[in-house]
Amino acid sequence: MGARRAVENMTTNIAVKVENLYKVFGRKPKEAVKKLKAGSTRDQLPSHTTAAVIDASFEVKEGEIFVVMGLSGSGKSTLIRTLNGLWDATDGTVSLGGDKITGISAKHLREVRRKRVSMVFQHFALLPHRTVLENVAYPLEQQGVGKSERLASAAKMLKMVGLDGWGEKMPSELSGGMQQRVGIARALAADTDLLLMDEAFSALDPLIRREMQEQLVELQATLNKTIVFITHDLNEAMFLGDRIAVMRDGQIVQVGTPEEILTDPANDYVAQFVQDVDRARVLTASSVMEPTRAVIQANAGPRSALRTMRDQFLSAAIVTGRDRKVLGMITDRDALKLVRAGESSIEAKIQKLETVDRDTPLVDLFVPSVESRLPVAVTDPEHRLLGVIPRVTLLAALAQTNPPTEEMTILDKPLPSDVVEQALMSSPEVN
Amino acid sequence: MEFRIPIGDVAEDGVDWIVKNLDGLFRVLRAIFVEMYDAVEVVLSTPPFWVITIIVALIALLARGWQFMLGSVIGLLLIVAMDQWSNAMVTLALVLVATFWALVIALPLGIWAAKSHAFSNVIRPVLDFLQTMPAFVYLIPALMLFRVGVAPGIVATIIFALAPGVRFTELGIRSVDKEVVEAGQAFGSSPGRIMRQIELPLALPTIMAGVNQVIMLALSMVVIAGMVGAGGLGGDVIASLSRLDTALGVEAGLAVVILAMILDRLTNAFGKRSGLFALLMKKRKAAKTARQQELAA
Predict the structure, then answer these.
(1) Is B290 touching A (CB cutoff 8 A)?
(2) Contacts of A168 in chain B (CB under 8 A)
(3) For B232-250, what is the mean pLDDT?
């Protein structure tokens, strides 16, 4: 998920802006839009009009992979085709990088398609009568690039997608996965900032699909295009998407990061949809962690450490430095020993504590969670403590239920409070 | 009184009016058809039969292979042996001229029909009319407009053979994979370039099937056109009919069949990759690939 992190460092210019977009097929589409705006539902329209997209509004940031997800008939393919004007919008606007492309002339629109948007198709849509190399060079041909120059850059693109030396073959001689790589190379050859991918991997078998998804993420890390990706496969959406728009019956029901969609579905439909997703691979540590209750500053004395643990009925606690960097953990038994010995610092007894980065997917949290005596500590890249994930929370996140409100991670029984009390009373006060 | 709508009379009046008022136009058309036919006929009839036979044999070899070449040569020699060679060349010239004009008219109409539903709806009944009207009926107005000779034969043939050219062109373009056309649009191609670079090349096999049909229909009509003095094999067929001359009828008829088979197999081969020509192209491509891989390595 390298792509996801890259976005955070980007300036957030808007690459695509869609406002109140409607697309209605059939007779009298404008009238249908009026009815929809007045509150009619899709089913109330006359039978010969189909509202494919209803009041869609969203923004795609530069450099992100924006996934539009929905079942067939949800209008996602129509939506993506309004982004390069293959369908003209019935109502509303589409802007690319601030320039409106709805309502412009056909000639101007072709110019936009040549220079600013390229597309990858579900069934590859390669020209069967041309060689692979000529196919990749096709967008450049439309841009008016000379023959030798365009073939040279097409060869470069083929190399980039790992099809070096296949240029003279005909598309039909290639496997599905390879054909789609040609499709991607062709779209990249156009050298546009925006890439539309319409169910690009849906026609491929699952193993190849996974491979292509990974290759796309890899490519995206170096190219940093803005990608609008259409899919009906939720796992694909979750894997690729920096943000996801969920569509149903022509409407966008939710836009959010994969985690937001999983953890905070906008309605029952989305909730039902995300039920089957492999949550362990999508959710990250930061999305399920809880605030830390038992944190002990490294410069605190053993007495206050012991008191903190006693107050919260804990057998161990995380120790952090002044800057909240995780230093390790300390147990109540060790703290007790220090108190009895009259030590003034807990540093000697700090034990090593495994921590995980906030972007770690849940699937990688099982081992640390089992091995650690404490809830797993979640840190940012600077190793500062952000929160903890008790085992119960981890399991609850996977089971898609709310974790119990009470912390129940008692690994070792805490010391009986009277023992602690006695130690605190009898030993000399140091601090 | 019996109820009757005089459609026939109306048509007759219409044709009469055209004959009276548009005579100049038809003179020009007649001149064009006759001149074209004469030119093609001279090219086909002037050289001795073996020159034409060798040329046909070479085309057959390139398009389909040696079996077809052998078959064509035997067929042509049979025509010579039946003393129908010059008739066959006349008929071939008529077919070529009529087919040329039929395609010149049919292809644009087919493209238009593929692009416009409205036009498609208009042209379809017209094509039905053209195809089902008994072929002889075309000869009557054609005869009045162009007078006896090759011109009415060619015109009747053009009209009769037109329909499959339009139909197959429309079908071919309509059945081009929509996503591929969309790809052309998505990369900013103009409609004209999409037609030239994507739709026509991909529709070509279907269009060629249409061309094949046009030629076959033209051949059958050219024989009927023998009735209006178009000459060639049709002239002999008609003559044999009026004289009940079985021998002549069989010989002229066989010559038509042989011509039909050669033309059919030949046009069938276009658009498919077969024969020596395809083999040579394949070799060239293989050599090119090898060279590129050497360069890459």
Answers:
(1) no
(2) 285, 288-289, 292
(3) 89
Residue B243 sits at the chain A interface (C-beta within 8 Å): no
Compare CB distances from B186 to A118, A127, A169 and report the shortest one's residue.
Answer: A118
Residues in chain B: 297
The first and second tokens of residue A398, run together, are 């996977």
CB B94 within 8 A of CB B154: yes
Instruction: Check CB contact under 8 Å for B179 and A114.
Output: no
A318 three-class SS:
strand
A195 to chain B: closest CA residue: B186
Sequential DSSP letters for A72-109: TTSSHHHHHHHHTTSS--SEEEEEETTEE-TT--HHHH
Q: Does A152 touch chain B (CB under 8 A)?
A: no
Q: Read off the amino acid at residue B44.
A: L
Model pLDDT for residues B117-159, shown as the tens digit of each residue: 999 999 999 999 988 888 888 888 888 888 888 888 898 899 9
Q: Is B146 exposed, middle or buried (0-12, 13-18, 19+ CB in 10 A)?
A: buried
Would the ipTM clear 0.85, i.e. be above it? no
Q: Nearest CA to CA, how far is B56 from chain A (Å)?
A: 29
Of A360, A367, A361, A368, which Cα lies nearest the Cα of A329? A368
- pTM of the prediction? 0.75
Q: Can you list the residues of chain A whose pLDDT is less than 50? A: 1-10, 407-410, 430-431
Chain B neighbors of A125, CB-CB under 8 A: 177, 179-180, 182-183
Sheet with A326-331, side-by-side order of all strands: A295-297, A316-320, A326-331
Q: Please state, in angstroms and rounded to a whole number, the distance separating the CA atoms of residues A200 and A183.
A: 9
Task: Give residue A9's pLDDT.
Answer: 46
Q: Is A271 an 8 Å CB contact of chain B? A: no
Q: At CB < 8 A and 24+ separation, what contacts does A128-131 make?
A: A128/A170, A128/A171, A128/A172, A128/B180, A128/B202, A129/B201, A129/B202, A130/A170, A130/A171, A131/A167, A131/A168, A131/A169, A131/A170
Residues β-bridged to residue A228 = A66, A196
Mean pLDDT (chain A, rounded): 85
What residues of chain A lie within 8 A of the CB of B182, using their CB? 86, 119, 121, 125
Q: Mark yes or no for CB contact B186/A123 under 8 Å.
A: no
Residue A114 near chain B (CB below 8 Å): yes
